[in-house]
Amino acid sequence: MLTEATITAVALDLIDREGLEKFSLRNLAAALGVYPSAVYWYLPTKDLVAAAVMNLVLRDVAPDIEPKAWKDYLRAVMLRCRQAIQRHPNTAPLLGAQLTANTRADFGLIEGILCALSAAGFEGPRLVDAYNSTIATLVGFTTQEFSPMPDSGEDWQKETQSRLDEISPVDYPVLSRNLSLLKNQAFILRWENGVRVALDNSFDMYIEIFIAGLEKMKKAPAK
Amino acid sequence: MLTEATITAVALDLIDREGLEKFSLRNLAAALGVYPSAVYWYLPTKDLVAAAVMNLVLRDVAPDIEPKAWKDYLRAVMLRCRQAIQRHPNTAPLLGAQLTANTRADFGLIEGILCALSAAGFEGPRLVDAYNSTIATLVGFTTQEFSPMPDSGEDWQKETQSRLDEISPVDYPVLSRNLSLLKNQAFILRWENGVRVALDNSFDMYIEIFIAGLEKMKKAPAK
DNA sequence: ACCTGAACACCGTTCAAGT
DNA sequence: ACCTGAACACCGTTCAAGT
Q: Nearest-CA neighbor of A77 among A93, A94, A99, A98?
């Protein structure tokens, strides 16, 4: 007999092995050894299957730290979220698409973030704003970093590289001066994703920017 | 005779009117009055059509400001990106998915951002990190804010609301204490997206967090 | 060069019917 | 309650053939 748990586990396994493009209810049903319509009895839509998969992937992101230490707590949340996606990089596009649309999400994580932000001094409407900023930050970098490139077709990679090499130094001086550092290491200018070329340093700065900015905001409530 | 420009314009119009789910090459071809395979002569894959649509949507996000005023410039980029998506909210999911995967993107925007960041004092590897942080920030909030909710089915909205109302005050004290402010105004806790309920204040704070954090980073190069 | 027209190999979802 | 089996209304992409 099927269960929501086995469906979800097999779905995640399918995505891990074959990629998000192969994640169809028909392939999932085949992997489960049932007809596609059998899955619908437990999860009546594909989006719900995806949401369940994401809950599985993000199961343990809520860190085991006292939220009062708000900087450490938020840093840990960001790091652990990225690590979770790194363990299942093919789910990366679902992070932006589903976390946000998923009200079955883990309220424990939300509570932890809200705790940390109130410990940082945010309350009322500004707590809402700080929360939204945190969720947006949590999702933004990691989704992109590990999202698939246009097909991993070799011709596309060559084409991308040659387009970069043709960049005019007079029209785009700063870009072309730093091209060797940016090539394949920067969003929009890369041809491999975070699975092949992780952007560890950039992610570190990204987090520190957020933490430092948050601290500044709490000290300067008025804009 | 078809052109890439008319295909792209009609595709954007289709997405604006009917939503991203109705954006298929078959519907696009019907709107153009041709067979689906005719489109392939100009744009040989659906992803390329989507990328072209995104270039159209983001055509004018590069602001008309001197990048030396780096704070004003980056603020303007973020605001104008959000405004562009607000004009075509159904394209929101493509922002995260395509901008990052699109090497046909506008190098002018990239150059502008790099200019602003060097004016802020970043260079070398730290310029790369600051750039990646900027792109991630640019995309993160807006993609989520305007991405579609699970189906706009009324039953789903009711279900979401009732799940929020059932949150245990003892398990989730901070969450339930602020629930009235968070309800439908915060990521994961809302049932309508930015088209119905724009998160203007949160976006403002999000930007200011980034700018303030960036300024802090430039002053404290070492972590 | 540009497009028709048909085909291939898929989809998500629904629904009657079985057990 | 749980699943089969078939059907419905779609997909993106390919390819020979026309002009």
A: A99
Q: Which residue has the tokens 């905001």?
A: A217
List, for chain A, all residue ranges whose pLDDT scores fall below the cut of 50.
223
Is residue A156 classed exposed, middle or buried when 0-12, 13-18 and 19+ CB atoms within 10 A define those classes? middle
B93 has a chain A CB within 8 A of its CB: yes
Find, among A30, A132, A67, the residue nearest to B141 by Cα: A132
Chain A residues with beta carbon closer than 8 angstroms to that of B201: 125, 128-129
C-alpha distance from B121 to closest chain A C-alpha (Å): 13
8 A C-beta contact, residue B205 and residue A130: yes
Strand D atom within 7 Å of B218 CB? no
Subunit contact B147:A206, Cβ cutoff 8 A: no
Q: What is the DSSP letter of B9?
A: H
Q: In whole angstroms, give the CA distance from residue A88 to residue A91.
A: 6
Q: Are A128 and B202 in contact (CB under 8 A)?
A: yes
pTM of this prediction? Answer: 0.96
B70 contacts chain A (CB < 8 A): no
Residues 9-28, chain B: which have Cβ under 7 A from strand D?
22-27
Q: Residue A140: which of B189, B147, B137 has the closest Cα?
A: B137
What domains lie within chain B, and their CATH numbers? 4-55 (1.10.10.60), 58-148+193-219 (1.10.357.10), 156-192 (no CATH)
Helix A70-87 vs helix A200-219: crossing angle, to nearest 10: 150
Burial (CB < 10 A; 0-12, 13-18, 19+), residue B135, is buried
Per-residue pLDDT tens for A33-57? Answer: 999 999 999 999 999 999 999 999 9
B186 touches chain A (CB under 8 A): yes
Which positions ≥6 away from B87 have C-beta within 8 Å?
B57
Low-confidence ranges of chain B (pLDDT < 50): 223
Strand C nearby residues, CB < 7 A: A 22-27, 36-37, 40, 44-47; B 1-2, 34-38, 41-42
Asked if strand D comes closer than 7 Å to A32 Cβ, the answer is no
Q: How far is CA B18 from CA A157, B12, B28, in A?
A: 33, 10, 11
Rounded (10°) angle between helices B125-146 and A200-219: 70
